[in-house]
Amino acid sequence: MEIVGSRGKSSVSSAGDAFTDIQLYRSAPELEVRLEDFELYAVHRLRVLKGISDGLSRGKKPNEMEDLVNKLWEANMKRSEASEFINKDIISHFVLRLVYCREEELRKWFLSMETTLFRYRFQRESPEGQRALLAEFNLPYKAVSGAEYESVKDKLKQATRSTGQSLLSADTIFYKVPFEQVPDLVASRRVFILKGYAYVAMNQVVSLLVTQYRSNLSKALVLTNRKWTSMIREQEKDRLTPIVEALSTSYLGPDYSQPRECAEISLKDIDQVAKSSFPLCMRHLFEKLREDHHLKHGGRMQLGLFLKGVGLKLDDALAFWKAEFSRKVGAERFDKEYAYSIRHNYGKEGKRTDYTPYSCQKIISSTPGVGDHHGCPYRHFSEENLRAALNKMGVGNRAVEDVMDKVRSRHYQLACTLTFEAVHGASCDAGINHPNQYYIDSQKILESRQ
Amino acid sequence: MVREEFDNMGEDMVIDGAGTEQKPSSEFPDGFNANYLKIYYGKLFPYADMHKWMSYGNDGKHPGCDQSYFGRREFSFTLDNDIYLRFQSFNNVAELENAIKEKCPFKIDIGPVYSVDPAKRHAYAQSGDNIFTPVERELIFDIDISDYDDVRFCCSGADVCSECWPLMTVAIKVIDTALRVVVVVSIVGFVMVKQEGKGNENSLKKVTFAGRSLHPFLGRSYAEVLKDFFEEKYILSQNLFSDEERYEKILEMIPDESTTSELRGKWLDNKRSRDDINVVRWGQLKHMLQSGKQKVQGIHRSVEEIVFSFTYPRLDLEVSKHMNHLLKAPFCVHPKTGRVCVPIDPKHCEEFDPSAVPTLSKLLEELNMGASGTGGEEELENTSLGKSIRYFRSSFLQPLLKSCKEASNSRF
Potential cystine with B360: which of A210, A426, B144, B338 (Cβ 3.0-4.6 Å)? Predict the structure, then answer.
């Protein structure tokens, strides 16, 4: 795969199989990629994979997962031109291989998500598409037909019924596979075996292909890692390497740095709104600020930027913080020591960078110390404190248990999502990924009820 | 081609029933000792057949033959004073014969084929890499009669009688079908050998079937072998329903209280009938479970579950899994009983009578009464062992060698 500068254009790949768009990613393609597409495509694919990860952690059932995968794929990967679409698929996959080959944990995650993606895309394929892919895998399976099928038809039905699976349609295809290639199916008595061949139904073949796909990708990742460490990382240290290293930790949603026009917030509403629409992390900081009239640096950054994203104008922000801090340190000290950094956050000082509010990922990975109140309560609070805080928010007992369950399995964002759902009595399908998203979604719901 | 062996029977097998006939003024009273063994090894043990078998066609002059093959097979000898010799190996049939005649082992076991000659294994151990390792061995399915102790009431442990031996017959039939028809193994050997006895358990090991129908293979086993055996023979020979303790075990397997209470009530009545009480009660049980009036899920499978729990083959998984298991050699003599380990013909396994297997003393007696002791084929043929040897050759050895030859021909 050739990475070219901005002036280069992506060339058209071969049309691929007429029956299916699904790729097997056997080898890096002969394509040229623009540098900006290199990152962009990867980000889009990563959205799909993270969406899948989310769905799996939430325990979505197979049919729900299938819908989810389809939605994610349509939303992020579709392109107007078929050839471009396939290119994006291939390119994004290979870029992410670079990103996720570098550590064991990363490899495991990527393998798991890509395999799931493959499985659900495969299941949606037409029978012709599935057969075409089966052929591409080059496995020696023959479809059973005609007289042979007639002679074993009853036994096949019997075998299917014995597993408790739903009855197959009349035109389900069976494949004859040497029995020793499907030890799992044999051991769990899910296939009929005769003369050394197992008669495997199409939906069981999926498992085989998925296993094969997974195994191929796993080996490929190890090889990619070797190439990366021995050669690519150094070669690309000024161009691709920084992009690759940033991608695995990136947050992928909107950055909320520019609040929408109508989303203003005035100081007189702020207490009310904090109670109704702030996520727990910000609520806690807000309450502590009101209580102690002070917050340490980490807390000022986390809450300050959040408020900016919520729509608090600079002048209001200065007034807000001054009102609190001057009760502790006095107005002069506030002007001298704290005002500058608030203006800095709004891009009015120094570098003039407009800082973006922190995402959940960033907040969760922060390390609050003694006297700090920032971070993610679902991660950083003790169980006791968290329960108390949730009760104070009005979360019912049953929901609290569900939340604690997620916390114990370290799904902090899901815990927050469940909290959102309990507090608002409404579901949040997308899941919480950013405190400002929590706020916006909350306001939406409340407004729609007025 | 897959080569299979099928172990059978328990340790210290003692057979009640027909057993020992008293011969008038026998020169060879029943027993097992070094003298008997010497004669047996001198005149009857089939060295050439064993060698041919263990060579798997490699003892020829064909360019595809691996001359080292036989020499890489491990044999182990247990001697008179319990001295145990492992990693014995021989380059040809003469060495094998001489070693057995000389050492006169009480037990002979067959191990796997190793990567190198077992006798030379120490030379390779030094090099670090694990060069000395098993590379091939027969696939063994081992059935121990003592594993059925929870479902038989006539014997326990290593004991077997004519009432519970049929469990082995049933197992042979099921496995034979599995190997020949399902998996397509062409050459299968069933042999009666010994095995360590297992611990006893009182609780009945139960089989459970989910799903709306039985898997085809299970359905076939049930219809062709298990059902008739259970209904027509086993419930009668074991009095499964005439004894309260025994039928309670069966009732425990039914997941519906109301059904079991009703049956219990019926049976405590103890009504007399013309037909055998076991048959009557089994009929009542089946009727209640299969009548279709049942509300409890899956209860109509209870009938099959009961039959399978009692009769389906119980295998020792570990023996099949590991390559280094030592297989008791056929045509060896069992030290405790004096009986010879013989092959069983699966096609006629119902007629096989374990108590009629030739003993060492019987064979020596027959030798004595035959032509003057010149040894050789003719003598062997005329003993009770002759039948077993002929069967071994025609049904196992010859097809095996033919198959080996075809395999090596196709490689060239």
Answer: B338
Residues with Cβ within 8 Å of residue A295, at least 6 apart in sequence: A285, A288, A289, A303, A373, A374
Report pLDDT for B25.
56
Amino acid in position A28: A
Cα–Cα distances in Å, from A386 out to A68, A284, A366?
31, 11, 18
A196 contact B CB<8A: yes
The string of pLDDT tens digits covering residues B62-101 is 888 899 999 999 999 999 888 999 999 999 999 999 999 9
- How far are the Cα atoms of A188, B3, B352 from residue B168, in angstroms, in the given order? 25, 21, 10
Total-model pTM:
0.61
Q: Flag whether pLDDT at A262 surpasses 60.
A: no
3-class state of residue B226 by DSSP:
helix
pLDDT, tens digit, 9 for 90 and up, residues B309-352: 999 999 888 888 888 888 888 899 988 888 899 998 888 888 98
Query: Which stretches does DSSP call E strand in A209-324?
Result: none
- What distance in Å separates the CA atoms of residue B408 and residue B6, rounded to the nearest whole number? 25
Neighboring chain B residues of A159 at a CB cutoff of 8 Å? 215-216
Side-chain half-sphere of A433: how many Cα atoms within 13 Å? Answer: 15
d(CA B181, CA B197): 31
Q: Give every residue of chain B whose pLDDT is below 70, as ranges.
A: 1-26, 125-130, 184-203, 292-298, 371-377, 412
Given A155, A179, A195, which is nearest B216 (Cβ)?
A: A155
Contact (Cβ atoms closer than 8 angstroms) between residue A368 and residue A298: yes
Hey, are the CB atoms on B183 and A161 less than 8 Å from each other?
A: no
Minimal CA separation from B113 to chain A, in Å: 23
Report which residue type is found at A382: S
Interface of A with B in 130-159 (CB under 8 A): 155, 158-159
